[in-house]
Amino acid sequence: MDISERLRTAIETSVLCWLATVDADGQPNVSPKEIFCMGTGPNEVLVAEIASPVSKRNISNNPKVCISAVDIFAQKGIKAYGTAALVTPAEPGFAAIAQPLTRIAGPEFSIRAVIRIAVGRVAPILAPSYIIFPERTEEEQRRRAFKTYGVQEGQVKLK
């Protein structure tokens, strides 16, 4: 599976992702993001900047980022490393770029900017149980996670 497929699968099966940035002093910052999707390019992720002034400031100083997306029931996902650019409402084409995020956000959230991430590489994220119990299938991992979190299989609806 190439980067694009791995990235798309992780983004489409995650309901929350985490964006890691660093400030001018090299101090890391991790921020949860709930409105995100694949962009128009094969290795592009779009993230809505709704209430993240620290992430926005950090990206302005250093565009290197890492975004992690995990399917909490399969208990696996990816870390995607890349370069971020901020697209603001003042820029031409903002509405078109923000449109898929606006559709996800609905009228509840105002998107102040789009964080556009060009992903250069990805690395897997696996729960320790995949390593400790290599004979377990992903389906078994899911069943165990549903039981642990008290969720019925039919109750889960992804974006």
Structural class label: alpha+beta
The CATH topology comes to Pnp Oxidase, Chain A
Could you name the CATH homologous superfamily? Electron Transport, Fmn-binding Protein, Chain A
Summarize model confidence as the mean pLDDT: 91
Largest sheet: 7 strands, antiparallel
Descriptive terms for the model:
globular, 159 residues, Pnp Oxidase, Chain A, seven-stranded antiparallel β-sheet, single chain, 31% helix, alpha+beta
Topology:
Blueprint: H1 3-13, E1 17-22, E2 28-33, E3 36-38, E4 44-49, H2 53-61, E5 64-71, E6 76-87, H3 94-105, E7 113-126, H4 128-132, H5 138-149
Antiparallel strand pairs: 1-2, 1-5, 3-4, 4-7, 5-6, 6-7
In short:
This protein is 31% helix and 35% strand.
Descriptive notes:
The protein has 159 residues and is α+β, with helices and mostly antiparallel strands. It has one domain: Pnp Oxidase, Chain A. The protein is 31% helix and 35% strand. The chain contains five helices and seven strands. The chain has a seven-stranded antiparallel sheet. The two termini are 22 Å apart.
